[in-house]
Design goal:
Elements: H1 16-28, H2 43-55, E1 59-63, H3 66-76, E2 84-88, H4 94-101, E3 105-109, H5 119-126, E4 131-137, H6 146-155, E5 159-163, E6 171-172, E7 175-176, E8 183-187, E9 200-204, H7 207-216, H8 238-241, H9 251-262, H10 264-282, E10 297-298, E11 303-307, H11 313-325, E12 331-332, H12 358-365, E13 367-371, H13 378-396
Parallel strand pairs: 2-3, 2-4, 4-5, 5-8
Antiparallel strand pairs: 1-9, 6-7, 6-10, 8-9, 11-13, 12-13
Helix pairs in contact: 1-9, 2-9, 3-4, 3-7, 5-6, 10-13, 11-13
Length: 402
C-alpha cells in the first residue's frame, strides 16, 4: 500500500541572507524596533517601507501578529464596544476573536459552494441600519467578486477591513488583495506566505488610521521613526487620545522577513504550480468537487480545498482517517468537534446564540482542506492525489476516476 512520507507542516528554511542579517541584529543587541543608532533605519522600518511599496499602499505597520493587526484595525476605523461587524461564517477563529477583543458583535455571513462570502446574504445583512463594518476574510485564499462586494458596501455605507492572511500576493483584476478596504491586515505566522513564526502587517492609505495604529502598537512618542507613516502633523491630536496596546514587531523577525518579501512573487508562482498539479489530479476523481475560480482572480495556491458533496459525515470521517493513515492529513471544516486550527462557526460559543446559517452548514459539511508546502514538488502532488483517489474509491465506493 502506497503511503506519503513527507510532512505537511515542514516549511522551507529561512533564506541565508535573512539568517545572516538576523545574526547581525542579535550581535548588535538592538532587537527592539526603536533601538537604533542615529540616522540608521532599523530592520522593522525598512520592512514596513518595502511591504508598503510591494502592496502599493502609502503606509504599513509591522505587528506582533496578524490577530493583533485585526484588533487594532477595527479600533482605528472607529469600531466601538457593542457595534455589529459583518464577518464570514467560514473563517478561522482569530477573526471573530478579534471582533470580540474589540468588544463588538460578529454578524456572520453565509458561504458559497466556492468557499467565498455569499454576496447575496451580504447584501441583505448590509442593509441593516445597525451594521457599519465588514471584516472580510479572503479565507483560504479565495477572493469573492471584489467589484460587486465593494459596490454593496459603498451603497450601504459599510467600511471594509480586509483580512489577507491567505492572499498575500493575490489580486483581483490586477489589483492586489489588501488595497480594496479602508485598512488591511496580513499575517506572517509560520504557515502563511512569509514566515516569521508570528507577526503581521497593517496597511492603509489613510493618515488618521495609520497614526492611530502606530500609537496603539506602542510607539510611545517615537512615531517619527517610521518610514511608511504619515507626517508628524497627523499625530498631533491622536497621540494624546490613543492608548498603547504594545503589539510591535521586533527587528529580529523583520530581518528574516525582508529577503522573503523580495522573493514573494517567485514563491507564489511555485505554490501555484503545486496547486495546478494537485487540482488536475483531484479533478479526475469522480465524486470530488473543486471550487470554480473566476478568471478575474489571481490567487496563491498555498492550500487546496475540495468537497465530497454526495458523502455522509460518517463516510467523510472514514475518508479523513484513511488518508491520514496513508500520510495525507486533511482538515475537515465540517467536523462538529474542533481539531487543530479548524473550527466551525457554531463552536465559537462566546458569540452568544448561534445564527441559522443553513448554506454555510451545508458547504462546510463536506469540505476538506489540505496544505501545499513549498517543501513538496510536483511528483509529491501527483502521489498525494493518487492516494486520495485510492482512499475515496475504498471508502466511498466510487470508481475513483472519471
Amino acid at each position: 500500500m502506497t503511503t506519503f512520507n513527507k510532512s505537511f507542516t515542514q516549511q522551507e528554511p529561512i533564506p541565508e541572507d535573512g539568517i545572516e542579517q538576523a545574526i547581525a541584529v542579535m550581535r548588535s543587541g538592538r532587537l527592539h524596533r526603536y533601538n537604533s543608532l542615529a540616522g540608521e533605519p532599523t530592520e522593522t522600518e525598512l520592512l514596513e517601507r518595502e511591504f508598503a511599496d510591494y502592496l502599493g499602499s502609502r503606509y504599513c505597520l509591522a505587528c506582533a501578529s496578524g490577530g493583533y493587526a485585526l484588533h487594532i484595525a477595527m479600533r482605528t476605523v472607529g469600531v466601538q464596544p457593542g457595534d455589529k461587524v459583518l464577518c464570514n461564517a467560514f473563517t478561522l477563529a482569530p477573526v471573530p476573536g478579534a471582533i470580540h477583543n474589540a468588544g463588538a458583535l460578529p454578524v456572520l455571513v453565509e458561504t458559497t459552494d466556492d468557499f467565498t462570502i455569499d454576496l447575496d446574504d451580504l447584501e441583505r445583512k448590509a442593509a441593516s441600519d445597525e451594521v457599519h463594518y465588514l471584516l472580510l476574510s479572503h479565507m483560504r485564499g479565495h477572493l469573492a467578486d471584489m467589484d460587486r462586494l465593494m459596490d454593496i458596501c459603498e451603497r450601504h455605507h459599510i467600511m471594509v477591513i480586509e483580512d489577507c492572511a491567505h492572499t498575500m500576493g493575490a489580486n483581483w483584476k490586477g489589483r492586489k488583495s489588501g488595497t480594496f478596504g479602508r485598512v488591511a491586515c496580513f499575517s506572517t505566522q509560520t504557515y502563511k506566505h512569509l514566515n516569521s513564526g508570528e507577526g503581521g502587517f497593517l496597511t492603509t492609505n489613510d493618515d488618521d488610521v495609520m497614526a492611530r495604529a502606530i500609537i496603539y502598537s506602542g510607539s510611545y512618542m517615537l512615531y517619527e521613526r517610521h518610514l511608511a507613516a504619515p507626517p508628524k502633523e497627523a499625530f498631533a491630536r491622536i497621540r494624546f487620545e490613543t492608548p498603547n496596546y504594545s503589539g510591535r514587531m521586533d527587528n529580529l523577525r523583520a530581518a528574516i522577513l525582508r529577503p522573503q518579501l523580495a522573493s514573494l512573487d517567485v514563491q507564489c508562482r511555485r505554490w501555484n504550480d503545486l496547486y495546478r498539479v494537485t487540482a488536475e489530479g483531484l479533478s479526475q476523481v469522480a465524486g470530488i468537487r473543486l471550487p470554480t475560480r473566476p478568471a478575474a482572480e489571481s490567487f496563491v495556491g498555498s492550500s487546496i480545498q475540495f468537497s465530497l458533496p454526495q458523502q455522509s459525515p460518517a463516510a467523510i470521517a472514514r475518508f479523513i482517517a484513511r488518508c491520514e493513515a496513508r500520510g495525507v492529513p486533511l482538515k475537515w471544516f465540517g467536523d462538529a468537534d474542533p481539531k487543530g486550527y479548524t473550527s466551525r462557526y457554531d463552536s465559537w460559543q462566546y458569540m452568544g446564540p448561534m445564527p441559522d446559517l443553513p448554506e454555510t452548514q451545508r458547504v462546510l459539511a463536506t469540505m476538506c482542506d489540505m496544505r501545499l508546502p513549498l517543501t513538496f514538488d510536483e511528483a509529491d502532488c501527483r502521489l498525494i492525489t493518487r492516494i486520495i483517489a485510492d482512499v475515496f474509491e475504498e471508502v466511498c465506493g466510487s470508481s475513483g476516476h472519471q
